[in-house]
Amino acid sequence: MRMRCFRLLSLLLLWAVAALTVEAAQAASAIVIGQSLPLTGPGFPVANRVQAGAKALVDRVNATGGIHGRRLDLLTLDDGGDRRRLAANLGKLVREQGAVAVVNCLGERACLEAAAVTRELGVPLIGPFSGAAALRAPMLRHVFTLRPDDRAEADALVRQLRSVGIGRVALLVDGDEPAREQALADALQAAGIAAQRLTMTPQRAALLTALHDLADLGPQALVLNLGPASLELLANEQEAARQAMPGTLAALSSPGLTQLTRLLRDRVIGFTSVVPVPELSQLPLAREFERDAEAFVGPEAFSFEGLAAYLTLRVCAEALRRARPPADGSGLPEAIESLGHVDLGGWPLHFGPGQHQGSDRVEIGLRGRDGKLRR
Question: Fewer CB within 10 Å: C terminus or N terminus of the chain?
């Protein structure tokens, strides 16, 4: 009898030790979030801000205990702006590194590629930097956006142009985001604003030709929708641009919005933003972002793109806290839907089974001729 009791106690002790070992292993294992960004090439300035903003939130989560005791790891691979490399990177992140979600793709083409690949991989795509309507297609139930679509942004920008008496514009585009360009053209036409469309390729000769044509047109305002390569060219041709461009510029929020607002300091730039203007907003979200950027990353995080990435990772963290264990790609979409109405530092979002676009809010910003942001 004593021997049987001893054996039973031994088995119970072994079971308890094994359970504690499994629990400790689960607590020690990290939850991996993946992203593929152009860390080389003309997209680097944007990618650097995005990575810095995301890291600020991840480091805050880990400094305060992680997700149910588990560390949150953000793994970033460089795609150089190449969609084929992006697709390969996402496969590595999910299949080899165990990423439970993909975040922060940049631009229309990259995000459409990411949406297709993550659908095959069975993980959610959260916070794409694109308002393309195609990302809201019914079959893409794994995609969760934190921003309004292109048409909503274009309408907001055009209303602002009309309100200040602009009736004749030039629209300078480079084909980087075709759907966004078309949304702008449609909104201008619907508002009765005469728009002359100038299309360039991201090459210096093409830019100089476009600037020459722009000078001949003499519009009241210039509306721009340019990708990273074209913005880099524009930064290098500021003298020629100043001679050709009117006193008022306008643009939709884009992965390069910070870069654009730092160009052509003697021009007024009106723009849309899908996050609070970080330098001006007094919302708790913006102040918490500033705190975490200073504590964990540095000034490169403090930008429109950095705040958008910070917000995306904050949504991820909130959903992971609600997800049924183990937190994996299959259960995370349901956890995001369960967030419902959620206020993240004064910035409300709403998700649900039929609601994968968290926000329809568009902010209107202005940068004055002195280079300072006004609102």
Answer: N
What confidence tier does 15 reach under pLDDT thresholds 50, 70, 90?
A: very low
Between CA 155 and CA 57 the distance in angstroms is: 32
Q: How many CA within 13 A on the CB side of residue 160?
A: 24
Instruction: Write the class of the CATH domain 27-148+281-350.
Output: alpha beta
Amino acid at 88: A
β-sheet with 125-126: strand ranges across: 72-78, 31-37, 101-103, 125-126, 143-144
Among 66-75, 135-144, 232-241, 310-319, the least confident range: 232-241
Other Cβ atoms within 10 Å of 33 Cβ, number: 28
Instruction: Looking at the chain, list the stretches that DSSP marks H as alpha helix, in order from N- to C-terminal side.
Output: 2-28, 44-63, 83-91, 108-121, 150-163, 178-190, 204-217, 228-236, 238-244, 257-261, 284-296, 304-322, 332-337
Cβ count near 109 (within 10 Å)? 20
CA angle 345, 351, 356 (to 5 degrees): 120
Q: What is the pLDDT of residues 295-304, one digit of tens each?
A: 999 888 899 9
CATH of domain 150-273: 3.40.50.2300
Beta strand 341-343 with 348-350: parallel, antiparallel or unpaired?
antiparallel
Determine whether 276 is exposed, middle or buried from the number of CB atoms within 10 Å of its CB (0-12, 13-18, 19+): buried
Parallel, antiparallel or unpaired: strands 221-225 and 168-173: parallel
Query: DSSP 3-state assignment of 49?
Result: helix
Alpha-carbon gap, residue 222 to 157, rounded angstroms: 12
Q: How far is CA 112 from the centre of its chain?
A: 13
Which residues neighbour 313 within 8 Å (Cβ) at sequence distance 6 or greater?
33, 53, 54, 57, 58, 61, 74, 103
**Strands 125-126 and 101-103: what pairing?**
parallel
- Amino acid making up residue 105: C
289, 59 Cβ separation under 8 angstroms: no
d(CA 153, CA 131): 8
83 and 111 Cβ atoms separated by less than 8 Å: no
Locate the domains of the chain by residue range: 27-148+281-350, 150-273
Decide: 229 and 200 in contact? Cβ < 8 Å. no
